[in-house]
Amino acid sequence: MKRSELFPDMLEKRHKRDRLFYSLTVGALWIGVVALFVLIAGVLWEGLPWLDWNFLQEFPSRKPEKAGFKAAFWGSIWVIALTTMFTVPIGVAGAIYLEEYSANNRFHKVIELLIANLAGVPSIIYGMLGLIVFVRMFQETTDPHTFFGIQVPFGRSVLAGALTLSLLVLPVLTITSREALRAVPDSLRQAAFGLGATRWQCTRYHVLPAAAPGIMTGVVLAISRALGETAPLIMMGALTYVAFTPSSVYDSFTVMPIQIFNWASRPQTDFHNVAAAGIIVLLAVLLSMNALVVVLRNRAEKRRL
Amino acid sequence: MFHKNHAEPSGARGQSSAREGRLASFRPSRWRAPKELLLGYGLQLSATISILVSFGILFVLVKESLPFFELVSPWDFFTGANWSPLLEPRSFGILPLIGGTLVVTGVATLVVIPVGSLTGIFLSEYASKRSRKIFKPVLEVLAGVPTVVYGYFAITVVTPALRTVLPDLGVYNALSAGLVVAIMIIPTVASLSDDAMRSVPNSLREAAYGLGATQREVSLGVVFPSALSGILAAYVLAIGRALGETMIVTMAAGATPQLTLDPTESVQTMTGYIVQVSLGDTPVGTPEYLSIFAVGLTLFVLTLGINLFSFWIRHRYRQAYS
Questions:
Q1: What are phi and psi for residue A242, nearest 5 degrees?
Q2: CA-CA to A11 of 20 to 30 Å: which in A39, B42, B131, B159?
Q3: pTM, rounded to two decimals
Q4: Domain tally, chain B
C-alpha cells in the first residue's frame, strides 16, 4: 500500500486549505470594515456639501436648503444630560451592590437574570413603557395638572424622553460597571479591610477609584447608545416638527436621530442630503465619544501594568 | 443582612484616641454604623429597579392589550393570516407580521453566522496584536452606529446597489433590510465569539499542534468546538437583536404586511407596524391603537424566550477552563 493512500490528506494539500481558510477569515473581517467605510464615505459624499454653519443655526423648514438641525441638536443635548443624571448614579450603585455587597443568594441571581434580559429587550418596547408610564401616566389624555409642584403626566416632554432612555440604558451601564468592578483585584479589598475600613470605605476609597476608567467607559457607551436611539422616542411621540429649543424639562422636543429619520423618509432627494448632513453631525459626536472610550481604556491598561 | 465576602473589620475602634497626630482622625464617628446600613440599603434599592422595570414592562403590555383581546379573540390574533388593521373589513391576524420579522431575521442570520464567526476566528486565532488593536475598535464603531443611520444606508446605498443586480427588486424589500441588519449585528457575533475562543486555554492548542495539526485544523477542530457554547449564545443574542430591530426595517423593508418567504418582497415587521401606528395620529382606545400593545407583547415574549435560551446555552454548556 502506498503512503498517499494511507494518508490521503498530504501536508501540501492541508496547507493549501489553510491558506484558503485564512483568506476566508480575512475576507469576512473586511466585509464589516468595508461596510463601515462605504457607509461613512456615502454619508460624507451626500451630506458634506450641505453641511455649513447655518445648518446648526436654523430650525427645520419645508425648504431643504433652509432646513437646519438646531432644535434636534439642542433637544439631544437636553435629553442626554438628563439621561446621564438619572442613569449614572443608579446604574453604578446597582453594580456596586451586585459586586461588592450582595450575597450570592436567590435574590442576587434573579436580579442578574433580569438585568441580562432587560439588556436584550427591544428598544421599542421601552418606548411603549415610557408612553404609558411617563407620557400618559395611565391616563387617556396628556393634559397636565400640577401635583406637588410637578406637572403630571409628563406628556411628550424632555423629562419623559430622558426617563425612558434612562431605563433603556440602565442595564447596559450596570453590566459594564460590574465588569469594571470585577476586574479590581481582591488584594485591594483585603488590604482595605485589613486596615479596618468598613465595606463602604473600602468601596468608596479603594475599589471605585481603581474601577473608575472602566466605569467611565461604560458611562460613555451608555450615553452614546442613548444618543443614537430613535424607536422608543418615536413610540412615545417625540415631535418631528419642533422649531424651538427646549427651555424646561416639560417642553416638547425632537432629537437628532428623529430629525434624520424624518428627513430620510421624505420623497425629495434634497432632503436625503439634508439627512446625510445631520448624520455627519450625529456621527461626529458619537465618534468623538468612541475615541474617548479608547483613550480611557488605554490609560486603564497602562496603569494596570 | 449582607453576605460577607471578606472578614468584616473589627479592630479599628478605640485605642487610637489617646495618641496624637494623624491616627486620631481615624476615630470612627458614631454615625458610621447607621451610615453604612443606609448606604447598603440605598445600593440594594438601585439594584432592585431592574425588578420594577421588568414587571413594569410586562404589566403595561398585558394591561394595555387586554382591551384589544376583548375586541379580537386571541385565537384569531395568533392564527390569522391577514393583517389589515386600517381598511374595512378589519382583520387582525398577526402571522404576516411575524412572517415579515422572520424573513428579515432569516436573511440577517444566514449572513451573520458565517461572516461573524469567521471574523471572530480571525480576531482570536490569526490576528497579530497590532491588527487586533486596529480592527477591534473598528468593529466597535460599527456596533455603535445608530440604527437610523443604518436605515439611511439601506435606502440610499444597499437597495440601489441591489437593484442594479436584481432589476425586479422593489424600492422596499426584506433583502436589503436583512443585509443591513446583518452588518449591524456582525460586531456582536464577532466580538462575543472572539471572547469565547480566547478563553479556550492554550494547552489545548499546543496539544493539537503537537499532534501535527495545522492552524486551520486547530482553529476549526479544537478551538471552535471548545468555545461552542459561547459562540451559540452569541448567535442567539444576535438573532434576538435582529428580531427587535426597528429603524432599519421601518425604513427599508416597507409597510406591506404579507405572509411570504420571498426576501425580495416588501414586508412589514412587528416593530415596523408599531412605528407606523405611532407615527400617525391614532386616537387612544381605537383597535389599531390597542393592537400595537398586543403586537408589542408578542414581540416581548418572543425576544424574552430567545434571551432566556441564550442565557441557558451559556450556563448549561459552559466549560470551565481555569
A1: -130, 120
A2: B131
A3: 0.88
A4: 2
Question: Does residue A144 have a cis peptide bond before it, meaning omega lies within 30 degrees of 0?
Answer: no
Shared domain check, B306 and B202: yes
Interval B301-317 mean pLDDT: 87
> Do residues A124 and B244 make contact, with C-beta atoms less than 8 angstroms apart?
yes
Size of interface A-B (CB pairs under 8 A): 288
pLDDT at B294 over 90: yes
Which residues, at least 6 apart from B114, have a Cβ–Cβ distance to it below 8 Å? Answer: A28
For residue A84, the tally of other CB atoms under 10 A from its CB is 20
The verdict on residue B9 lying in a domain is: yes
C-alpha cell at B306: 430567545
Q: Tell whether B116 and B176 lie within a shared domain.
A: yes
Closest chain A residue to B8, measured at CA: A193
Q: Do B171 and B307 share a domain, yes or no?
A: yes
Buried (b) or exposed (e) across A177-211, using 16+ Cβ within 10 A? bbbbbeebeeeebeebbeebbbbbbbbeebbbebb
- Tell if the CB–CB gap between A33 and B135 is shorter than 8 Å: yes
Gap between the Cα atoms of B69 and B92, Å rounded: 10
- B145 close to A (CB below 8 A): yes
C-alpha span between B48 and B279 (Å, rounded) = 34
Q: Is residue B80 part of a domain?
A: no
ipTM: 0.89
SS3 content of chain A, % helix, strand, coil (to 5): 75, 5, 25
Query: How far off is chain B from A128, nearest CA to CA, in Å?
Result: 8
pLDDT-above-90 percentage for chain B: 56
CB-CB neighbors (< 8 A) of B216 in chain A: 14, 17-18, 21-22
Nearest CA in chain B to A93: B43
Name the residue among B138, B177, B186 with its Cα closest to residue B158: B177
Identify the domain containing residue B11 by its residue range. 1-60
Using the structure block, give the residue that is written with the C-alpha cell 443591513: B180
Q: Please report, as a single letter, which amino acid is at residue A237.
A: G
Position A242 scores a pLDDT of 77
Using 50 as the pLDDT threshold, list the residues of chain A that sit under it. Answer: 305
Give residue for cell 397636565. A144
Per-residue pLDDT tens digits for B138-187 = 998 898 899 999 999 999 999 999 999 988 888 899 999 999 999 999 99
Length of chain A (residues): 305
- Mean residue pLDDT of chain B comes to 86
Asked whether residue B237 is assigned to any structural domain, the reply reads yes
pLDDT in tens, B226-245: 999 889 999 999 999 999 99
CB contact under 8 A, A171 and B50: yes
Q: Which of residues 48-107 of B touch A (CB under 8 A)?
A: 48-51, 53-54, 56-57, 60-61, 64
The CATH number of the structural domain formed by A53-304 is 1.10.3720.10
Q: How confident is the model at residue B301 (pLDDT cuts 50, 70, 90)?
A: very high
Partners of residue B54 in chain A, C-beta under 8 Å = 114, 117-118
- Whether B74 maps to a domain, the answer reads no
Q: Three-class SS of residue A240?
A: coil
Q: Which sequence spans correspond to the domains of chain A?
A: 3-49, 53-304
Domain holding B209: CATH number?
1.10.3720.10
Position A303 scores a pLDDT of 66
